[in-house]
Amino acid sequence: MNTTQATPETLVERATSSSWRKSDAVWMMGLYGTAIGAGVLFLPINAGIGGLVPLLIMALIAFPMTFFAHRALCRLVLSGNSACRDITDVVEQHFGPRMGQVITLLYFFAIYPILLVYGVAITNTVDSFITHQLHLTAPPRALLALILILGLMTVIRLGKEIIVKVMSVLVFPFVAVLLFLGAFLMPHWSADIFTRAMPFSGAGQGGLLSTLWLAVPVLVFSFNHSPIISAFAMSKKAEYGDRAEQKCSRILVCSNILMVLTVMFFVFSCVLSLSPEDLAAAKAQNISILSFLANHFNNPFIGLLAPIVAFVAITKSFLGHYLGASEGLISLMGKALRKRGKPVHDVTLDRLSGLFMLVSTWLVATVNPSILGIIEMLGGPIIAMLLFLLPMYAIHKVPAMARYRGAASNYFVWAVGFIALSAIVYKLL
Question: Which of 107, 135, 247, 324 is the most exposed place for a label (fewest CB within 10 A)?
Answer without folding.
Answer: 135
